[in-house]
Structures are given as structure tokens and as C-alpha cells.
Specification:
Strands 5-6-7-8-12 form a five-stranded mixed sheet, with no helix packed on it. The chain folds into two domains: 176 residues, Methylamine Dehydrogenase, Chain H (7 Propeller), CATH 2.130.10.10; 104 residues. Strand 5 and strand 6 form a beta hairpin. The protein is mainly β and 284 residues long.
């Protein structure tokens, strides 16, 4: 992910950091620093700025969440400032809310949506979570503005408004996105005031990918249908999608990045950039 002129890259060996890495021609750029945590980095990665400076939050391959403070400054090997764990491990995703100073983790084997209070002030081992919101298994959690979004692979997205007060059990607004034995919700992103869901039905070359866009998501008070549904022959085994500042939709699947331009009635396919990538970042 990108933060200013610094790029953070999660790899199978840990974290690599590059400064000034902007172009594809910079492939030979030497890392500025990095860290190894005994396993791959996986799941969510985010950067926040607080009283203590810039912090990087990410899920480690062993199923825990780590925080690295002064993430915009280090120039060599670094160790986590804090580690957040659960006995079951398998925290696939995490999201930090700076207003409530809480970290949320999506644990996928029975613990559910869990959280830590005063998360940015902890150093070392943060211990067990302080509270649980629900025991539902969520594979992706996102905090955007005053909302928390939690995704189930089976096809629903739970939306919690006023996330700054979310410190225990609460009933969410549930969006039923996909259904059916062959349907799978793979990712959610929030950008330009809209929730984008990523799903596909089937597998391999027979997979059919679909994106659903819920605009003005901050005003959500009850379940509703998506404003726009996008599907195309180029979309198969989807990984993630994002809206650009100009309204364009970028969709990543197993064989490349498809770009859709906005029209008065939705979107039109523009092009596909071929490649085997796991994620992407828009620098706008």
C-alpha cells in the first residue's frame, strides 16, 4: 500500500518498504527497510496518523495483527510495536478506528468480530481481545468514516454505524449481497463515498464476476439493494475492486486488472491490463 512517498509491500517473508517507488520501471528499486515476523503478511494493511506519529497495522500470516509505530521514518529492520492475538489465531482481517481508538479483528473460526480498546497505546503483547461484537465469522473488516463494514464469504455485509461507540454486542444493518451454493463474496472496499462488493459464482474459467456499488453509504439506515451492478466477460475469479476519484471502476481478477469508465447509466468496459497480481493501489 502507498503512504506519501513510502510503499509498504507484504510478502511471504514479511514486510518490505520502498521510498520513492512510483513507476513500473522502478522494479530494481532497493528496499529502504523491512521486518520479518515469522510468516507471510496477509489480509488487511492500513496506515494511520495519530498523536504518536504514523502507524502501520497489518495481519500476519500466523493469524495475528501487528502494529508498527513511526512507520514513515524507519530505515532498517524493525520489530512490531504491538501484537494482537487470539488463541484460535486466524484473524484474517483487521481495521483500526482512530475516533474510538479501537482495533477490530475478523476471526474466522468461532471467535467472530473481536476488538481491543485503547489499541494505539498498547506496547508489546496486547493480550486477548477486550470485547466481542458478534461470533459471526467475517473474512474482511473495514472502517471508513464513522462506519465499520464486516464481510462474510457466504454473501452478507454487516454495517455498524457510529463505530466510535462500538465496544460490545450490537445488531448491525445487514446487506444480503449474494446467495446460492456456488456464490462467494470475496472482498469489500469503500471509496468515494461508496461501498463496493466483489463476488463471483462458479470456479475457474466458468466463474462469473460481479461488482455491486452502494453509493452514499454513510447515509445507510436500513438494508437496501445496490445502486449499480457491474458484470462483464472479462471478470472471472475476482480478487478486489476500487472506485477511482474520477468515478472509474478498477477490478482485479486472476488474470489482470479491468477498467470500467462511468456512463450516465452505469459503467462501460474500457480495457484490461494483463497480469497475475494479488492487489493494487490507486495513486491519485
Amino acid at each position: 500500500m502507498q503512504f506519501g512517498e513510502r510503499t509498504f509491500l507484504g510478502t511471504s517473508a514479511g514486510l518490505l518498504v520502498f521510498d520513492g517507488l512510483r513507476l513500473a520501471t522502478d522494479a530494481g528499486h532497493v528496499p529502504t527497510g523491512g521486518a520479518s515476523f515469522g510468516g507471510a503478511l496477509a489480509g488487511s494493511m492500513s496506515v494511520t496518523r495519530g498523536d504518536g506519529g504514523v502507524s502501520l497495522w497489518t495481519s500476519a500470516g500466523s493469524g495475528e495483527v501487528i502494529r508498527i509505530d513511526q512507520a514513515d521514518r524507519f530505515t532498517g529492520p524493525v520489530q512490531p510495536t504491538a501484537t494482537y492475538r487470539h488463541p484460535f489465531q486466524q484473524i484474517f482481517s483487521n481495521a483500526y478506528d482512530p475516533l474510538g481508538d479501537r482495533l477490530y479483528g475478523g476471526q474466522v473460526s468461532g471467535a467472530g468480530l473481536i476488538g481491543w480498546n485503547q489499541a494505539s497505546r498498547v506496547a508489546g503483547d496486547a493480550g486477548m481481545h477486550d470485547f466481542a461484537v458478534t461470533t459471526n465469522n467475517y473474512g474482511k473488516v473495514v472502517v471508513a468514516g464513522s462506519q465499520l463494514f464486516a464481510m462474510q464469504f457466504a454473501g452478507t455485509v454487516a454495517v455498524y454505524n457510529d463505530v466510535a461507540t462500538l465496544a460490545g454486542a450490537r445488531t448491525p444493518i445487514t446487506l444480503s449481497v449474494v446467495s446460492g451454493s456456488n456464490a462467494s463474496l470475496r472482498d469489500i472496499t469503500v471509496s468515494d463515498g461508496a461501498l463496493v462488493t466483489v463476488e463471483y459464482t462458479g470456479s475457474g474459467s466458468a466463474a462469473v464476476g460481479t461488482e455491486r456499488i452502494y453509493r452514499n453509504i454513510a447515509a445507510l439506515t436500513a438494508p437496501r439493494a445496490a445502486d449499480t451492478v457491474v458484470t462483464h466477460a472479462s471478470l472471472q475469479t475476482l480478487r478486489t475492486a476500487r472506485l477511482g476519484a474520477d468515478g472509474s471502476l478498477y477490478v482485479l481478477d486472476a488474470d489482470g486488472l479491468s477498467i470500467f469508465r462511468p456512463t450516465s447509466g452505469g459503467f462501460t468496459f474500457a480495457t484490461e491490463l494483463s497480469g497475475a497480481w494479488n492487489d493494487f493501489t490507486l495513486i491519485e
